Structures are given as C-alpha cells and as structure tokens.
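User: I'm new to structure prediction. If I give you an amino acid sequence, what do you actually give back? Let's try with this one:
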Amino acid sequence: MKVRLHCVHCLLERAINQTKLATDDPDLQMQVAAKMLDFLARNLTENSVPSHIGTDRDLLVQQMTGKDPYEELKIQSNKMALDILHELKQIVEEAGEDRVRFRKATLIAAAANAIEFDVSGRDFDLEELRGIIDHVESDLAVDMIPEFRTLVQKANEVVYLMDNAGEVVLDMILIHEIKKLGPRVIAVVKSGPILNDATVIDAEQVALGDCADEVKETGAAAIGVNLDRASDEFKELLNTAEVIVAKGMGNYESMTEFEPTCPTVHILRTKCIPVAEHIGVEKNKNVILIRRP
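Assistant: Good question. You get back a string of structure tokens that encode the predicted 3D arrangement of the chain. For your 293 residues, that looks like this:
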C-alpha cells in the first residue's frame, strides 16, 4: 500500500506528538521538526509505503531526542490491559460452544486494536467491555472469522504478528483459543522500540511466553513487516508459515507490498481513510480479512 495525501498530515502530526512526548526542550523540538521536514521533503514520494517511512520518522525522533517517546505509555498500556484480562476471559468462557468462543476471542482481538489503553486512570467494568465487543460486531465491515477458524483447524502452526503494547494482552485470549484447535502458536514482537509496538520487554511484562508456544522477534525496530530490515530468521519464518495472523494497520500497509506466501489473516480497525479505501470499507470499521497466495 502506497502513501496518500492524508498520510503526509499523519506523518507530520505523529512526529510532532512524539517529539513533545520525548522532550520538553523547545529548541530541541524545533530542531526535530526542521529535520523532519527536510527528511520528508527528500524522501516522501508517491511510491513511499506509510509504515516504512513512518519507521524512519520514528527512528529520527528517537535519535535526536535520545528517548523512546512511548516507553512509559507502553508500561501503562500493559498494566491496564492486564487489569481487564480476567473479565474478558470470562466473556469468552460464557460463550460455551467452541465456535462461538473463537468468534468472541477474535472480536476481542479486533477490539484491542481500537481501545486506547494508555489513558491514565481509565477503568473498565464488565458491562462496558461487553458493550465494546458488541460494538466491534456491529462495526464488522469484513467478516471472515469462519474461514479463519477453518484455516486454524487445519494448521500445525500459526505465526501471530503482534501489534501494540496493551493490545498484546488481549491477543493472548485469541492465541489461547487458536491453540485449543490444535496448532502451535509463534508470537512475534519487534526487536526494538518503534511507535507503541510490543517488544520483547513488553512480552516479558505480560508473560506472553506463558501463552504462546514460542516468542520470536522481527529482527528490527520497524513498523509492520519491513523485509529490508528484518532478520533472515524472521523472513524464513514468514516464508515457511502455514497461516499468519497479522494485527493492525502497520502490518496491513506493509504486507500488501508483497504477495502472501500463505493465508494471512488481517485483524484491524480502519483508523485512517487511506487504509479504509485500500480495503474498500469506511473509516473506523473493524476488519477480519484473509489474503491468500
């Protein structure tokens, strides 16, 4: 997926927001802004991929400020998600039949892509969580959950590409349901801080390794899947996978740049117009979409 005009605004706005999170020094903030404008002027073209140029933007902010802007917010996100994990498990347990449980768990994974976990002091109760999941169902613009379940039943192994901190906790509910259908699950996190994406540190904080059969890394601090930056081990994992679950817009933006080598299940909310239009749905809709070789 290539950039659109909307992406230019988003790239700049996120850069400014990250800079303000990383430093209170107004001089340094202006230096970062000037450098960012120069970088985009020299590198942003109609052939740019949003997630790839977004990676360069994030790394530039980190390099100039000497800080991961999202470090504290990710800790808060993980804690908040862990606080509601028991209640969400309860909702899945109440579903009873395996098919319905799998659907509920998938909807929770989709909801996780929309919930703002990093809002300080945010509390959820069980009824609100039920409402969120019902809203995910009603906003489901692409529903390939039955096909998703069939793929999982036939697979020996599923590669699960994680997205954000906080969100990763709710993905563990779906990982549990996938494993109940038979396959091993390899959870994949980023190898360094980028956006608020889950890293090995986040995986340890939420005990992801106790849920997935194995936790691996992409080999890079990069949004989505960047084959130019990824490790050979990760690229081999993708090339030999039977089924891939890819969470979030960054994975969708980047993975649509190459043909899938196996059925790839994208679970995301269309938070921006370019992604929504690329999929063919409205903005702010939930999507469970399978791309096949």
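You can read the tokens as a compact description of the fold. Here is one thing that stands out. The chain has a mean pLDDT of 93.
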